Amino acid sequence: MKAGSAFHQNRFWGETTAFLALFLDNLGVLIFMSSILIFTFNYPADIIMTRMIPGTAVGVFFGDIVYTYLALRLQKKTGRKDVTAMPLGLDTPSSIGLAYAVLGPAYIVTRDAVLTWQIGMATLFMIGVVKVITSFCGAWVQRVIPTAGLLGSIAGVGLLLLGFLPLIEIFNEVVVGIVALGIIFAVLLGGMKLPGPIPGVLIAVLLGTAIHFILGYTGHIPEFKEPSFEMSLCLPVFSVDFFKTLPQSIQYLPIAIPFGIMTIIGGINNTESARLAGDDYRMRDILLTEAFTSLIASFFGGVAQTTPYIGHPAYKKMGATYWYTLLTAVSIGIGSVIGLLSLIVGIIPRAVLAPIFIFIGFEIVHQAYKEAPEAHSPAVSLSFMPVIANLVIIILGQFLGAMAITPDMLPMRLQVMHQSLTVLSNGFILTALLWGSMLAFLIDRKPRLAALCTFACALFTLFGIIHSVSPAGAVYLPWTIASHAHYTIALAYILLSGILLTFTRQTNR
Question: Does residue 6 register a pLDDT over 60?
Answer without folding.
Answer: no
